[in-house]
Amino acid sequence: MKTSLLVIGHFNVITMTTIGVLALQGDFREHREVLERLEVSVPEVRLPRDLTGLDGLILPGGESTTIVRLLGTSGLLDPLRSLAREGFPIWGTCAGMILLAKRLDASGIPALEAMDIAVRRNAFGRQVDSFEADLSIPILGDPPFHAVFIRAPIIEQVGPGVEVLARLADGTPVAARQGRLFATAFHPELTADLRLHRFFLQIASHTGC
User: Fold this and answer.
1) What pLDDT shows up at residue 47?
2) What's the CATH number where 95 sits?
3) How many domains does the chain have?
4) Which of 32, 110, 113, 133 is buried most deeply by CB count within 10 Å?
5) What would the pLDDT profile of 152-205 be if each residue is shown by its tens digit?
6) Quick check: is 94 catalytic?
């Protein structure tokens, strides 16, 4: 399998090169384009057979209710639930974070139930209430990460095995990690900053991050 050398902060990382992107609905194309810029192979995942040969998987932003419905009709729900619970590297952004959560507010039913976080959907209101913020993310170093929040969820609670990686100015968690599960409430794929995608490649590369 082809590998490439990436540098994140002071880490030199040999990364795996096959990262799938769930392509049922939402902004999967934007994630694919970022990963292609990093010279990673990026198959689109629409059916269970598309999970074969992956080193990691991204669950993109979109409409979480629609994505859950399509996971059921495509036959992907149970295989993804099994992979997530087995510790397969999965990154959920926005709606993808909702899919990973074990607990949701009263407006939703958990899907993969893999990551020990409680998530509140649409925590900031409607599309017109979308916003951007510069986040301090210590794993990335400086400068701050310019994050785009679109109908974003938030993390309301974390379990003992979950590490919070970023917070808003008021202390609200918006990025977290549990083992090789990674979740962000915002959309890194909508910025020119590649550092979080590189970080996920590091997680998927079995380098002990």
Assistant:
1) 98
2) 3.40.50.880
3) 1
4) 32
5) 889 999 999 999 999 999 999 999 999 999 999 999 999 999 999 999 999 998
6) yes
Residue 136 lies in a domain: yes
Question: So what's the pLDDT on residue 12?
Answer: 38
Q: Which two tokens stand for residue 139?
A: 């794993």
Containing domain of residue 110, as a range?
4-204
- Rg, Å, the chain Cα set: 16
187 has catalytic annotation: yes
Catalytic residue among 30, 31, 187, 197: 187
Residue 132 lies in a domain: yes
Burial 15-28 (b: 16+ CB within 10 A, else e): bbbbbbbbbbbbbb
Residue 165 lies in a domain: yes
Per the annotation, the verdict on 146 as an active-site residue is: no
Edge-first strand order for the sheet with 56-59 is 44-45, 19-22, 56-59, 90-93, 181-184, 173-178, 163-167
Q: Which of 30, 31, 189, 197 is catalytic?
A: 189
Catalytic pick among 94, 132, 146, 206 = 94
Q: Please check whether residue 209 lies inside any domain of the structure.
A: no
Q: Convert 192-201 to b/e letters by CB count within 10 Å (16 or more is b).
A: ebbbbbbbbb
Tell me what pLDDT residue 205 has. Answer: 84
